[in-house]
Design brief:
Layout (H helix, E strand, L loop, with lengths): L4 E5 H10 L1 E5 L2 E4 L1 E6 L9 H6 L7 E3 L3 H14 L5 E6 L3 H5 L1 H10 L4 E6 L33 E5 L5 H13 L7 E6 H5 L1 E5 L6 E2 L9 H12 L4 E5 L1 H5 L3 H11 L3 E3 L14 E4 L6 H9 L2 E5 L5 H4 L10 E6 L2 H4 L5 E4 L2 H11 L9 H20 L9 H11 L5 E4 L4 H8 L8 E3 L8 H12 L10 E6 H6 L3 H8 L3 E7 L4 H9 L25 H7 L3 E5 L2 H12 L4 E7 L23 H15 L6
Parallel strand pairs: 2-11, 4-5, 4-6, 6-7, 7-9, 8-9, 12-13, 12-15, 13-14, 15-16, 16-17, 18-19, 18-20, 20-21, 21-23, 22-23
Antiparallel strand pairs: 1-10, 2-3
Helix pairs in contact: 3-5, 3-18, 8-14, 10-14, 11-15, 15-16, 16-17, 16-23
Organism: Paracoccus lutimaris
GO molecular function: acetolactate synthase activity; flavin adenine dinucleotide binding; hydrolase activity, acting on acid carbon-carbon bonds, in ketonic substances; magnesium ion binding; thiamine pyrophosphate binding
Keywords: Hydrolase, Thiamine pyrophosphate
């Protein structure tokens, strides 16, 4: 009997397949692909857009302003959905595709699913070179799209219409695999998009995808349990994998019953609320004194769902050289790092099985009390730095204190590059779980506003908090990518954007000067300009209003609080600007290994080099 077929163009078949993939969120069956961010050009407008137009009520297409920011919005969406639902970013060939490479790197570093679809050149090569084709003289198969290969988990170029039958399921499976999760890229040759093929109808049958939960090896679990039982001062590091495994409650219960304090990475912040009894603060370079003190004293560290990035480990100076690590991670690549006892498996299921293996063991009595005392001291430090003063210009910490006070429990704070990550990781007190998004895996400037747009979409459906994204960023990042203020205003999605105007790239200026280099090309006052007597200042309020947002400038912390309350009552996008101090920061006590010149004419650089050598002498030897 001949299998039934349906004749479709490749682009039509691709879209029909995507429309028939489903997932479950909180017990509700929803489309796996929630929508498309699209900018059309000659490489996708006549075929892919034709296919998308016919399903716009089922797979909505949202018009972006910049290809990179579209993909960043998709990342913000995926984070808010905790990798349970995916957005697509579609672009034409050439510069449009190349614009998305930075966003692909952001998704790759953060292990987040995004489907990137770009037009490509002609498979038959007859019109070559086509508009926007960058020719590689020695290899005619290479196009701009090959630039995605280092920054995606799955890459394919479709040159025959039937190739999507095997390619698309692999792309989806990769994006949903907790061990391999990351972006997938599909390049569509222009002449292949148009070609019709008799596709088997079974290819389009609805499919329900479930996130697999791998169970750890029993011997590895037994070894981990034995090591943990030997601990005098154990510590748990909660990473982003805890959030994506939906393991927050399981972790909180495990830690409470076993008497082990929990500290969090930047990606892991928000799995627990700030005031949860087992929570002892963020760890590392942008962490708390409480978490870092516990790390220094810990003899066994259970690291869950974290790749132990240098900002978490203080470039491997934050722990005793004798401390032992147990790494529970869905990704083998992460679990075996740094000589850890690796337990490869899902965070939630791994915790449950480790709990059984521990029998009635509990940590040393008094450890949790000690952790709470340290954390109370840290909270007192935060209170001191966030308290309003008579200073003419408020600090980041004071701004965060006001924002935190006005934010509703289900509102999500979003930040990324610059001085914001350190200040919000230290100072934002999470009220409800999973309401914090600081992109610091790639530290991508420009993520914030785009992610706010994507997050706003995610909060509307199943699994969303129903709250408002509150974006916090500096003036430097705002200037780099702000067009999604217009995107969100255009589409009607609500978010609040707080712009801290500290006159340039303040935190990198701080690092520059800390390493002995005079202020140079970071703060606007240190940049090369022709007329220093008449500097140009951006009016962020007028700029935001020109893009359809409501906007207000705050002259003080009291003004900021009033403006935030006003913004909560607005629909659409509200932008609030406030001048902030470029020199005041919440203190930290972890080191960071960065390159410092071995020779220099600056005495300050030579001193910084000597200090850097001491940091390197303190590093643990990892693998």
């Amino acid at each position: 009997m001949t299998a039934k077929t349906v004749r479709l163009t490749m682009a039509q078949a691709l879209v029909r397949y995507l429309c028939n993939q489903f997932t479950e969120i909180d017990g509700t069956r929803v489309p796996l692909f929630a929508g498309v961010f699209g900018i059309f050009g000659h490489g996708n407008v006549s075929c892919l857009s034709e296919a998308l137009e016919q399903v716009q009520d089922q797979l909505p297409t949202w018009r972006g302003q910049n290809e990179q920011s579209m993909a960043l919005a998709a990342i913000g969406f995926a984070k808010a959905k905790r990798r349970r639902q995916i957005m697509i970013a579609a672009t034409s060939i050439g510069p449009g595709a190349a614009n998305m490479v930075t966003a692909a790197g952001t998704a790759m570093a953060n292990r987040l699913p995004v489907l990137l679809i770009a037009g490509d050149t002609f498979a038959n090569r007859l019109p070559d070179p086509v508009l926007q084709q960058v020719e590689q003289f020695g290899d005619p198969t290479i196009t701009v799209n090959d630039a995605f290969k280092p920054v995606v988990r799955y890459w394919d170029r479709i040159t025959l219409p039937e190739q999507i039958i095997t390619s698309l399921p692999q792309a989806v499976a990769t994006m949903l695999d907790p061990a391999d999760c990351g972006p997938a890229f599909i390049g569509l040759a222009q002449d292949t998009q148009e070609r019709a093929f008799d596709y088997p109808e079974v290819f389009f049958e609805p499919k329900l995808w479930r996130i697999p939960r791998s169970r750890p090896d029993r011997d590895a679990l037994a070894e981990a349990a034995a090591l943990l039982k030997s601990a005098k001062r154990p510590l748990i590091i909660s990473g982003g994998g805890v959030r994506y495994s939906l393991a927050g409650e399981a972790l909180a219960d495990f830690a409470a019953r076993r008497g082990i304090p929990v500290v969090e990475t930047i990606a892991g912040k928000g799995a627990l609320t700030h005031d949860h009894p087992v929570h002892a603060g963020p760890i590392g370079i942008v962490g708390s004194t409480s978490a870092n003190q516990l790390a220094r004293e810990a003899d066994v560290i259970l690291a869950i769902g974290t790749r132990l990035q240098d900002f978490t480990t203080g470039s491997w100076t934050a722990f005793s050289h004798e401390a032992r690590f147990i790494s529970l991670n869905a990704a083998r690549f992460d679990a075996v790092k740094h000589r850890a006892l690796s337990v490869v498996g899902d965070a939630r299921e791994g915790l449950a099985e480790l709990d059984v293996a521990l029998d009635d063991w509990r940590a040393t009595p008094g450890l949790m009390t000690y952790a709470r005392q340290l954390f109370a001291e840290w909270n007192a430090v935060l209170d001191e730095h966030q308290r309003p003063t008579n200073a003419a210009v408020p600090s980041y910490a004071q701004v965060i204190g006001v924002m935190n006070r006005v934010a509703r429990p289900n509102d999500t704070l979003i930040g990324a590059a610059g001085g914001t990550p350190g200040e919000i990781t230290k100072g934002w007190r999470v009220k409800d779980a999973n309401t914090f998004d600081c992109e610091f895996g790639f530290s991508c400037m420009g993520y914030e506003i785009a992610a706010g747009w994507g997050c706003a979409m995610a909060q509307e459906g199943p699994g969303g908090t129903g709250g408002t994204p509150i974006v916090m960023l500096g003036d430097g990042t705002y200037m780099m990518m702000n067009s999604d203020i217009y995107s969100a205003a255009l589409t009607g999605h609500k978010m609040i954007v707080v712009v801290c105007d500290n006159g340039g790239y303040a935190v990198i200026n701080r690092l520059q000067q800390a390493k002995g280099v005079p202020g140079f090309n970071n703060l606007l006052t240190d940049c090369r300009v022709k007329n220093r007597d008449n500097p140009i200042h951006v009016d962020f309020v007028k700029h935001a209003e020109a893009m359809g947002a409501q906007a207000r400038h705050a002259d003080s912390l009291a003004d900021l609080e009033e403006a935030l309350i006003w913004a909560q009552g607005n629909d659409g996008v509200t932008v609030i600007s406030i001048v902030s101090d470029a020199w005041k920061w919440v203190p930290g006590d972890a080191d960071w290994d960065v390159g410092v010149p071995e020779v220099s004419t600056f005495e300050t650089v030579r001193a910084a080099r000597a200090a850097q050598e001491k940091i390197r002498q303190a590093q643990r030897v990892g693998v």
